[in-house]
Design goal:
It contains 16 helices and 15 strands. The chain is α/β, with parallel strands linked by helices. Helix 10 packs across helix 11. The radius of gyration is 27 Å and the shape is elongated.
Length: 496
């Protein structure tokens, strides 16, 4: 596989079209992902954007790029319903659990990292927290004020969206909204009459005496608005203009529009050259929410008999399911789709196990050129689809075509010497790299030494015709997701 970097295309929300990816530095990709607000357990929706950007991260590394990947944690300033007069989510949860706000943030950051690890998501290079950069956020707010695009009212600082748009004509470019349409649609809320326009957003909020998380500033004690942090955290580590800014579709407005606006004012840049957004996740056809009673955390899905699907599914089942839908498409998750994903994942992972063990120890007969062409075409298609906006559903489709060939070799339906040795080794290398290192699907975690011991006991029981013992071993293995496969010349195992 020729790792041609010039053929990568990414859909850019800023231009609303597919664009060839051209990094600012030819050998480095700088990427920022808006991370979670850490006031509760991660849910299924969090997994989609994390998996998408993990694939991007892994693929760029596979192509030889140095990737500098930043994902933040919002631990202050994210207000309920994204409205400027409502309560900070971290503080609200802290009061509910009767612990300090920073304990809440640490507790759920730790939990989030655990969930990402079992989904086999690579950790970012840096994971900055908003509260660690309060001074830098204050400096950004001062810059916006000095340039005339912010205003102070009663100790709170707001960004003047209307004035910004008069100069830059960009507010709404990511979400496809027009400022004229947004202003009358923005709902009236108590205390928002202090703003010039309802569409203006808070850069800094005055804290009342009951607000636990507050810092001194030129405007009195307060705390930064949610939209203030990401411009500071991303540019501190990636520069005033970097390659990719990512997040969920729901962050386009208002969060990313607000980031883009601040960056234009402060740095005279669009912050990132490519704005990449993942679409939403539905549960049984409905938007996931606590009010709809279809909200499910990752820990519930993986470890508890949850009340949505009434059974657990593995992290790899979920990862595989999410890869079967393009990241820009809405994904509907059902019990049936998860069960089907488990079957597909197991089929793929058994082929991965098999091809690792297949060695080319014969001479090529040259008797079947068609199979060589089929293999070469599928390998080329796999990487073409990775280059085509990370089209994982089509990647998986081509991987399954190779899976059929691997199964035929294992089952002696295809002689390995019908395949050119170089073609076979290319298939083996590509299959392992794509499945393990790019799609990052892992084999189930089992102790293979114990399985091999049981395999010997199974063989002995069969030789002695002790079928009670044979059935006992089979049933025990089946209960942990393994079955033995008998053939004329060998007994092996596969995942189920």
């Amino acid at each position: 596989m020729d790792k041609d970097r010039s053929k990568i295309y990414i859909f850019n929300s800023y231009s609303n079209k597919l664009e060839e990816f051209k990094p600012i530095d030819k050998n480095t990709v700088k990427m920022y992902l808006c991370g979670p607000t850490v006031y509760g357990l991660a849910h299924i929706g969090h997994a989609k954007s994390s998996i998408t950007f993990d694939i991007l991260n892994r693929y760029f590394k596979y192509l030889g790029y140095n990737v500098k990947f930043i994902r933040n944690y919002t631990d202050v300033g994210h207000l309920e319903h994204d409205a400027d007069d409502t309560e900070d989510k971290i503080q609200k949860q802290a009061i509910k659990e009767h612990i300090e706000p920073m304990e809440i943030a640490q507790k759920y950051m730790n939990s989030y990292r655990e969930d990402m690890a079992i989904l086999n998501i690579l950790p970012p290079n840096i994971e900055p927290q908003a509260t660690s950069y309060i001074n830098e956020q204050i400096e950004n707010v001062k810059t916006i004020l000095n340039k005339g695009f912010g205003y102070e009212i009663n100790g709170s600082i707001y960004f003047d969206v209307k004035k910004y748009n008069e100069k830059f004509q960009k507010y709404g470019i990511l979400s496809g909204r027009k400022i004229e349409d947004m202003m009358p649609e923005t709902r009236e809320l108590d205390n928002q009459n202090e703003k010039k326009n309802n569409i203006d957003f808070a850069l800094w909020k005055k804290a009342d005496s009951k607000h636990i998380m507050q810092w001194n500033s030129p405007w009195g004690y307060g705390y930064p608005g949610w939209h203030t942090e990401c411009v500071v955290l991303s540019t501190k580590y990636l520069g005033e203009l970097f390659d990719i800014h990512g997040g969920g579709y729901d962050l386009k407005f208002p969060h990313h529009e607000a980031e883009l606006a601040q960056s234009n004012v402060i740095h005279n840049t669009n912050l990132a050259n490519y704005w990449v957004h993942t679409n939403l996740v539905n549960i049984d056809g409905k938007k996931m929410s606590k009010s709809a009673n279809n909200y499910i955390t990752l820990k519930d899905l993986f470890f508890n008999t949850n009340n949505i699907f009434n059974k657990t599914f593995s992290p790899m089942d979920l990862r595989f399911l999410m890869l079967q839908t393009h990241y820009r498409s809405t994904l509907t998750i059902t019990k049936d789709s998860l069960e089907a994903a488990h079957k597909g994942y197991i089929k793929l992972i058994n082929a991965l196990k098999d091809i690792k063990n297949i060695e080319y120890k014969t001479e090529y007969t040259g008797s079947n050129n068609d199979i060589n062409n089929i293999i070469e075409d599928n390998i080329n298609d796999i990487f073409n689809e990775l280059n085509n906006d990370i089209n994982t559903p089509k990647v998986i489709s081509n991987i399954f075509n190779l899976t059929k060939i691997i199964n035929d070799i294992r089952n002696n339906n295809l002689a390995i010497n019908n395949i050119n040795k170089d073609t076979f080794l290319k298939m083996k290398d590509s299959f392992i790299n794509v499945v393990e290192n790019i799609l990052a699907l892992q084999e189930p975690k089992i102790n293979k030494n114990i399985v091999n011991i049981l395999l010997e006991l199974y063989k002995n029981a069969k030789q002695k015709k002790d079928y009670i013992e044979v059935d006992f071993i089979r049933n025990k293995l089946y209960s942990i997701g393994i079955k033995f496969c008998d053939s004329k010349n060998n007994i092996n195992f596969e995942y189920i």
